[in-house]
Design the sequence.
């Protein structure tokens, strides 16, 4: 018994129960405080442990459920009913194939009339040649420029899915108006014989109807060009290597389908317009764009549609204003106590704090937004105290704007190539029209001459994707094989070769005219129009490399909320190229037509032009443009590579 008392505390000894009275119990606990504290701590620890285990189990179950939900859905994407897009159901090459099929019909409807529109304006609307040429140039330039509007709306307010449907409906309405006018003689200017006197051009309400239909088509084309490429590219998971490869394949075949639709337009539809009438030509285009709508809708159950994130221009404007005003406030500090109290700098996490590790230091954000080289001016927008809380910027917003600024030099470098491509629809067509256009017993109409670059693109696109790229991947041991900027650079270099070849061909054509004594003749020269095929080959190849490279480059490098707008820059480059071509011709004629010298690009016929000199000038300008491109391309740091590695 003594041993029990020695080893067990009195509170646990059954032979010595604690006193029953309150006072005696208090004195007992005071005398045995260590034992009471031991019991209370044990009870507290056991309760805390059981509570923490139960809470941990509940949190784990919630995390598992959230993880399962996130693994089954595409974050930031919805289906056509605005429900979360499912990984097992939405996206992939099947969804993109509907976009490719739609592109064939859409480009058929556009080029069926654009490639031969000048003929309709001259023969049916009785426009003067200069006015007809300007009308076509303005129409195509406006259509491509409006792609920026379509891309902006897709990013800011509506999905690219909805923008395409609205744009296709608008283009259908415009083509329907043109078809009705072409079918109804009372809606056209009176017929006349141009050999007996000048014909009266369309005017008044008839002209208003024509231009309304024409620019409704331009508006619809712009919306489609600005939304359709991004809609297809969004179907692939850029977080996986296979997804990125499939997306690259999509852009190659997007250009292929673009060319395929153009092939049908410049051959079959142009033949119909020349032989059966413009009612049939406009009608085929109207039916094509109408059929594209149900084809596009057929893929609704497979699309994953990116959720709009608001206006990208708002972010760009805010960062620029914040950088400007913060710089001024830093140079001229103001002592406004009220503003100092009301305005607080934006909160930054430790990962957003700038680290000054030397010249090549970068600003760190999370892995989702890899940073570019430090830009002292724009970085002030996030590093310094804003003059107003509305101008408070995060480092992620600054990085997005820095990316957009970095894309601009690449975009500007491609305008010269688009200017070279514009020659295919102007002087190159006139060259071929002055030559022998017969292939055996078949006479090729001048409006069908763009078939050469179209065919070359259709041949090169699959060859590039299935032969050139796999070989380049083996040689370079990289995922892409050829980078986007390398691909664009190849296209720019090919444009230099194309202009040089065009100059040499023009020299030969003119020598044939001199030897045949046909300088003043309007008849076909004794030289085959196939001589211009090489310049079409090189320009078609340049278009394939550059357009597909630009679309993929702008899509992958731009911020997530600006992708549709960024891909629209590829079409805007074409528009600015058409405008630059017109300006360049005017400048050349003014510069070379001084004094007794005749302008290079004027004369009774093409045989009196100095077209070879103009082509050499284009080649020199293309070389300068290529060097300008190299300057920026060699300094560009890819954002998508970092984003892919971080994901």
Sequence:
């Amino acid at each position: 018994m003594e041993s029990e008392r020695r080893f067990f505390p009195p509170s646990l000894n059954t032979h010595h129960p604690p006193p029953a009275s309150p006072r005696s119990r208090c004195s007992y606990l005071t005398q045995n405080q260590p034992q009471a504290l031991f019991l209370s701590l044990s009870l507290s620890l056991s309760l805390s442990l059981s509570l923490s285990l139960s809470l941990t189990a509940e949190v784990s179950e919630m995390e598992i459920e959230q993880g399962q939900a996130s693994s089954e859905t595409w974050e930031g994407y919805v289906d056509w009913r605005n429900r979360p897009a499912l990984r097992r159901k939405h996206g992939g090459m099947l969804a993109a194939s509907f976009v490719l099929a739609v592109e064939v019909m859409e480009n058929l409807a556009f080029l069926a009339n654009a490639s031969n529109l000048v003929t309709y304006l001259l023969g049916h609307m009785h426009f003067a040649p200069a006015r007809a040429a300007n009308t076509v140039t303005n129409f195509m330039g406006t259509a491509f420029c409006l792609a920026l509007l379509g891309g902006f709306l897709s990013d800011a307010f509506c999905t690219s899915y909805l923008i395409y449907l609205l744009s296709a409906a608008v283009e259908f309405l415009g083509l329907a108006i043109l078809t009705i006018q072409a079918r109804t003689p009372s809606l056209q200017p009176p017929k006349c014989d141009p050999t007996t006197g000048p014909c009266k051009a369309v005017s008044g309400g008839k002209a208003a109807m024509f231009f309304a239909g024409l620019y409704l088509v331009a508006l619809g084309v712009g919306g489609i060009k600005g939304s359709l490429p991004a809609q297809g590219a969004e179907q692939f998971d850029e977080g996986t290597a296979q997804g990125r490869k499939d997306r690259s394949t999509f852009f190659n075949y997007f250009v292929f389908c673009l060319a395929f639709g153009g092939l049908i337009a410049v051959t079959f539809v142009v033949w119909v317009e020349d032989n059966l009438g413009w009612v049939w030509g406009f009608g085929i285009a109207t039916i094509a764009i109408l059929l594209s709508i149900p084809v596009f809708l057929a893929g609704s159950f497979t699309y994953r549609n990116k959720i709009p994130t608001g206006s990208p221009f708002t972010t760009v404007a805010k960062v620029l204003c914040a950088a400007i005003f913060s710089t001024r406030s830093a140079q001229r500090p103001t002592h406004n106590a009220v503003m100092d109290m009301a305005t607080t700098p934006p909160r930054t996490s430790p990962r957003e704090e700038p680290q000054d590790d030397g010249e090549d230091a970068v600003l760190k954000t999370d892995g989702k937004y890899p940073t570019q080289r430090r830009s002292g001016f724009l970085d002030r927008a996030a590093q310094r105290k804003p003059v107003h809380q509305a101008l408070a910027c995060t480092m992620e917003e600054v990085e997005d704007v820095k990316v957009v600024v970095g894309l601009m030099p690449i975009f500007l470098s491609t305008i010269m190539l688009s200017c070279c491509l514009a020659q295919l629809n102007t002087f190159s067509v006139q060259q071929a029209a002055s030559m022998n256009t017969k292939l055996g017993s078949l006479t090729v109409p001048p409006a069908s001459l763009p078939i050469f670059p179209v065919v070359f693109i259709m041949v090169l696109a699959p060859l590039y994707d299935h032969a050139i790229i796999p070989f380049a991947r083996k040689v370079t041991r990289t995922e892409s094989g050829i980078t986007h900027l390398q691909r664009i650079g190849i296209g720019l270099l090919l444009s230099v070769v194309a202009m040089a070849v065009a100059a040499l061909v023009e020299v030969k054509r003119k020598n044939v005219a001199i030897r045949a004594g046909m300088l003043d003749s309007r008849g076909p020269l004794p030289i085959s129009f196939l001589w211009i095929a090489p310049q079409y080959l090189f320009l078609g190849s340049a278009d394939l490399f550059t357009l597909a490279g630009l679309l993929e480059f702008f899509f992958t490098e731009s911020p997530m909320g600006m992708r549709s707008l960024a891909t629209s820059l590829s079409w805007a480059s074409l528009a600015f190229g058409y405008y630059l071509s017109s300006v360049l011709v005017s400048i050349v004629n003014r510069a070379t037509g001084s004094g007794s010298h005749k302008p290079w690009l004027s004369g009774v016929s093409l045989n009196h032009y100095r077209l070879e000199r103009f082509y050499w000038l284009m080649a020199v300008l293309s070389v300068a443009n290529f060097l300008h491109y190299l300057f920026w391309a060699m300094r560009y740091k890819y954002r998508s590579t970092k984003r892919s590695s971080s994901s």
User: Anything to note?
Assistant: Residues 71-308 form a domain with the Growth Hormone; Chain: A; fold (CATH 1.20.1250.20). The first strand starts at residue 73 and ends at 78. The CA atoms of residues 96 and 232 lie 5 Å apart. The chain has three domains: 71-308, 312-393, 403-647.
